[in-house]
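Aim 2 progress update. The chain analyzed this quarter is reproduced below.
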Amino acid sequence: MIGEGLVRADGQAKVTGRAVYVDDVRPEGCLYAATVRSPFAHARITGIRLDPDFDFSDVTVVTAADIPGENVVALMTDDQPALADKVVRHVMEPVALVAAPTREKALAAVSHILVDYEPLPALFDPERSRGHEPSLFGSDNVYSHITLVHGDPDGAFASAEGNADVRIIEGTYRVGLQEQLYIEPQGMIATHRVDAEGAPGLTLFGSMQCPFYVVKALSRVLGHKRFNVVQAVTGGGFGGKEEYPSLVAIHAALLALKSGKSVKLIYRRDEDLRATTKRHPCRLRYRTVVEVRTGRLLAFDGHMLFDGGAYNTLSPVVNSRGVIHAVGPYRCENVRSEALMVATNTPPNGAFRGFGAPQVQFAAERHLDRIARELGLDPLDVRRVNLYRDGDLTPTGQTLKDIGAKIVLEAALERAQRPLPPGNGSGRPGGGGQAARLAAGRGLALAWHGCGFTGNGEANLQGKADLALEGRDLRVYTSSTDIGQGTETIFPQIVAAALGIGVGRVSVAPPDTDLVPDSGPTVASRTAMVVGGVVLKAAQALRAALASEVGFDGDFDAMLDARTSDAVLRVREQYADDGTLVWDPKTYRGDAYPTFGWSCVIVDLEVDLDTGEVLYRRLVQATDVGRALNPVLASGQLEGGALQALGYATSEEVVLDERGCMRNDRLTNYIIPTALDAPEMETVLIEIPFAGGPFGAKGIGEIPHDVPHAAVAQAIERATGAVLDRLPMMPERVMAALERRR
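Predicted structure tokens:
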């Protein structure tokens, strides 16, 4: 089964419309919810009143005063309230909730909740956030500050002064917000239930990545755990449904408790875009000492300033991965990598595929291009001389082995030798036809990505998985959700391969927190590699348990035939740290990740010299996947992530107004790539097995988003000479860069 491109288990239900998403469910007598949100970025709440001219007789209203437990969204810190109480810290912050018999009545009621505000000074500039007023977080508005030092960077920079053989090269790079834009908006249903002891409770059913995140958050707000959380079929996440659904679930639950009825809360698209988390914007300043003759990195000094928005969410984790990945897949003996995550009065930023790595690796790749430009070297040669090799040390002091950097580079270059497809300019409506002036260019970038949680994260979490023999079939019980990446397909493949049976006899239980153990969140490229490894252990444990029951270990079906009991046989396994990784979270020294993935991306494109539009022709990527459990699904993950990165590169710009609110809150003006924009894709799967993953598999969910945008920037420069060091590279910015070049 392993290595076969089996059809995805959930595919037929989704394409035929049988899959049940949260908005497909309509509990009898349910109310429809809506959210009252702040129009101010920073203000004091002085009162909340109901409009006496509106009929509230069938409307349930909830404010912070109705919260039975703690008014907090429990995550990394307790700074974010479930509903604003006394102060709002960003535009679109939830202040009150309503539920009514129809959506129309609920939306109408929102405009008749009269909230009195006293505006306060707002802070929008991350450059002046640290240590300045207004005070949004702690004593200095800093969510996270990490400094990683390796070797002697100060000495290396000092010795570079006056040395003709080396040069100090500096650059500043900027990346903007990016919206996850899952196809299905945020949504949750809260229904009433009675447990086995007759105690009343709730069931939360919704679109999410991490059911046990919701459990943690909801238990603090309700003050009890008489509820269960069930993942609905989820229309995409990309991190946007990691931590944010906790807030949606809290709101639905509060309304259900007060009304005594089921409540459905589904965001409108414009509301989803304006209110939910985005990828963190970042300003990056890099200084390097390089060898003039070769471009070899001798010292690196990088300073990253991330904007976390109004609440902490998961920002420290983004800061952490950013500081570790800042130099890219390139060795350097003297490194200072400093990352600062600060607060502003903009909507909170949070989880997004890549978790800080796409921001910093864009800067790393553009800085290598700058080195090549200033020294008159070939950008490819600069990369070759700096790539990691077996035995090299990372900035955290981790010794690398089984490095795939050179392998993916050569594989991508070989595949890129194939003839290009026809150019896009003449065949596109409005593309200028034969009169279009198009300049062709090719760009190349390389990425590394730590698989799984940083440091001791997995050892602390100890994710669990159950496997049950139910009759002659098996059922996998985990809280690892399928959000389109194929979990419901690869887990049965792992079990079937381990037991030597047909994959059709293995299924995955719905992620219901009453039924499944906590496997950890569906994030960090850990589902296949880490939880899949636990599932493999469970399959081995179940075989051993069955062998013990029947008295021999042999063919699985033969053991089943020898069974005299028809009782369910269920085993549980959990992640166990083997003690080989050593990590100090205080100094950021040691083994940051159990393994790394490696990728090379080559982009061929054309630039319209009259409009600045970038037209993609082909994207080649060669990626180390460890072992492709299902090559079709693996290729789909890589291609989808790469296309998302192309949107980050040239079309996806979040435009904020003077209140910090997203202005382009529609699919008509927040532009993501469509099938018409997508280039031909060539995907090469490189297999360098990782002993800690099931059958050698590594995590691949995030690495395809890490550097395609950097390859695009190099390709534009090679085509036109225009240098762009800011994302996104919209046509207006391309034209401005062309003017500067002229």
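The first strand starts at residue 31 and ends at 37. Residues 501 and 557 are 8 Å apart (CA to CA). These observations will guide the mutagenesis experiments scheduled for the next reporting period.
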